[in-house]
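User: Quick one: structure for sequence A, then sequence B.

Assistant: Sequence A:
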Amino acid sequence: MILGVLLMVIFISSADRLASAFVPIEVRRTSLAYVRISSVQAISSALDVSVSTSTRALDHPDVPLVISSTKFIVNIVLDLLIISKVHVGAHTPTVNIQAWVRMGCDLTSAVAGFLYFLFIAKRMQKEEQELEARPSLYLLKLLLRPGCWTFLESALRNAIYLWLIHNIISMGADYATAWGIFNTIRWGIIMVPVQSLEASTLVFVGHAWGRWRAQSGPEIRKPKASRKDIIGR
């Protein structure tokens, strides 16, 4: 969440440079407000991902469902009230209004999931008095060591992705529009079952690893799994 806030501040303060790199020149001047509004997605996405991952690790996959359902419901309501042809008021819907609607959906769903996560954590502490759930620098260091590889992979993948978008934008508005249509189709149709499969796989793999780690003995710092353990699970 702290990194998300930092990214949001950087994006808002450098909106003109972001627009020059990722927005066609024909609409670059009028897109600064849209870039600044969309920058809030950095904190909402960080909160969404962190809460979803943490709650899945706690055997509560219903929290990501709450986040997605909240975002879906709020999106429908705000679209009908603000953007649709039968919207309330005499205003004309614009791209910036759509960005405000998206920001409201993302923040509402992320905060709802975060509050639900806090409720679950408090309930688990009451049920198990010996459960220690306070964050500490030592536990953060334990997570940083295996997480650095995921961070490097994500940074490299996103750098290549941004470089690709920048080159497509520099080719003109027609190419940018085609890329936007392709992206919408990819994330709206193709990536939905792929991401669902990924989330389910991570849950099953995490549970299998947890059972094996408990059987191998928590006193062993670096246990080694045999080929039978890996294939059998």
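Sequence B:
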Amino acid sequence: MGLNVFDDRICELGEGPLWHPGRQQLFWFDILGNRLLSRSDSDLIEWAFDRHVSAAGRVGRDRLLIASETDLFTLNLGCGAKERVAALEADNPVTRSNDGRADPFGGFWIGTMGKRAEPGAGAIYRYYKGELRQLFPGITIPNAICFSPDRRHACFADTALGKVWRVRLSDTHGWPVDAPELFLDHGRDGPNPDGAVIDTSGLFWCAEWGSARVRAYDGAGAPVRTIGLPTSQPSCPAFGGPDLRSLFVTTAREHMDEATRASEPGAGKTYAMPDVAEGQAEHEVAL
């Protein structure tokens, strides 16, 4: 079996896929549509918001921690109740949230960026046990936030620069130590690193915006496997399914002209491919 459409609802900017192991359910976002999407068997599920939302971490079985353009808040998946956890650049109307993921220590990393990708307007933050701390400022398009299976490293990218960094984490609370080291450098004109995830063997699976592919890299940064997509703007991969071996990929139509949209009718849909590799279970956020 090859790549299939998992969900044919069109997202202008699909992002943030999260497989919830406790619910056996995929969640993802349409950032520009202010929507959280999911499905349960044949039932299509959506939540609408009054602001951009982009990434989530699981909090137990029935809540998600969601990043928006102004805050981090919890959403009760049963009753829809929301509760603010922390402000996130709430006084800066230029920026919104972008890529994010829970870390192995119970923290949650989230990137911000300018709504028009203003150079250097964004940053990467970490929420951990009640504290939201800025980690890396001056980032234009933060992406590829993911964590090694041995808990020793985090990765993150600035898509605008075509660069991915790796940073060592402390053994106790998971805060970054030392300076980030360059992991991949595609340059401004090379493949654009967007969302990414690391499997249990340590391979770094990166959606490469504009390249119609997700590519896996080994620890030395060498490409070892490529999965092609029928649309040019894949945005983020996630492992899921009962055995965590299926690869889900969100895509986008943002910035496409009408001719390109017509030639890529699959743009904005969410895809799945079974039996790709063994993924890590997404970590739980400790509020």
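The CA atoms of residues 231 and 265 lie 8 Å apart. The chain has one domain: 4-273.

User: Thanks, that's what I needed.
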